[in-house]
Amino acid sequence: MQERIERIKEQLHNNSYKLTPQREATLRVLLENEQDHLSAEDVWLLVKKNSPDIGLATVYRTLELMSELSIIHKINFGDGVSRYEFRNEGAEHHHHHLICVHCGAVDEIHEDLLGEVEKAVNDKFNFHILDHRLTFHGICQKCQETAKREGSPPEIKLNHYG
Amino acid sequence: MQERIERIKEQLHNNSYKLTPQREATLRVLLENEQDHLSAEDVWLLVKKNSPDIGLATVYRTLELMSELSIIHKINFGDGVSRYEFRNEGAEHHHHHLICVHCGAVDEIHEDLLGEVEKAVNDKFNFHILDHRLTFHGICQKCQETAKREGSPPEIKLNHYG
DNA sequence: GTAGATGCAAAACATTTGCATCAGT
DNA sequence: ACTGATGCAAATGTTTTGCATCTAC
Fold it and tell me: What's the pTM value of the predicted model, to 2 decimals?
């Protein structure tokens, strides 16, 4: 974790940005919640626990900056907010989301499902792919089981997006 | 085109909604611009040409309704706005987007690229897929050619999303 | 000291809602 | 007359911005 911060610090310096305490605190929250898909406000509330004086605007500016430097990923699940997730170094863009339309849970697939598909698109459409976003909407295993057991659709708790 | 409107009219009536002049005008704009990915305001501006008195709220309400009835699709390219596109009847969800990061143009692929992938996800993760969204970000053929010819990155006109 | 970074409040922007009015059956 | 639909303006919620202040080199 510390090494990752160090590496980001270098990356920032290379672009003549500074790793301020606020930026570091924001990055730490992101790193500590790597599994989640936090909104800017989520991040802000978490950062405030250790840095009570940080402003929401700073969090937004930090997230925007990290996003531009491809340190984090800005994603959008179609509810009104942007969400942010750490981007594994080295790992290409092989990382997709499974969103349950019943309970709202978000799972991830860390596999490259699209190698062949990308090749096909590159060749067939002469489109030079840099990145992709793939999201599946459906019913997660848990909700399928609940439905089977209770014979009724399970509890809906949207905006969970854990 | 007229038949499509008729069919939607039935679909609305089946759900005890009415096909009002405003709703019909909105649908016509959507049908006339089936290739585009219009935002709510885009639609509003176009509808106003023939129905100058229509309110933006009505357009929003219509788009929301049509979306719920799966007549149109609400999509999100990550800029701040929702975009809407007609949903081909019969066609499943085999329809993906190629977004050029240089010129902002949006192309579509009307092919089912994910049949195998979906099967794999269904089996491996026990996730019952209902729908998916696949977007490729990259450089379109035109921009590749311009770059090659001029040796410099081509004109950037984001928010085009044609 | 200079340039970038911050916090706050205000602004901007997309979208939704309340409500009085209107239209179609 | 009733019910749903509309237009407008106001409200909402997220994100951005202006600006004075602060911080680090």
Answer: 0.84
pLDDT tens column, A134-143: 999 999 998 9
A87 touches A51 (CB < 8 A): no
Using CA coordinates, name the residue in chain B closest to A77. Answer: B76
B81/A contact by beta carbon, under 8 A:
no
| CB of A26 within 7 Å of some strand C atom | no
User: All domains of chain A, ordered by start, with CATH?
Assistant: 1-90 (1.10.10.10), 95-162 (3.30.1490.190)
To the nearest whole Å, the CA of B3 is away from the closest chain A CA by: 31
Q: What does the radius of gyration of chain B's CA atoms come to, in whole angstroms? A: 18
The three-class DSSP label of residue B128 is strand
Work out the burial of residue B28: count CB atoms within 10 Å of its CB; fewer than 13 is exposed, 13-18 middle, 19 or more buried: middle
3-state secondary structure of B104: coil
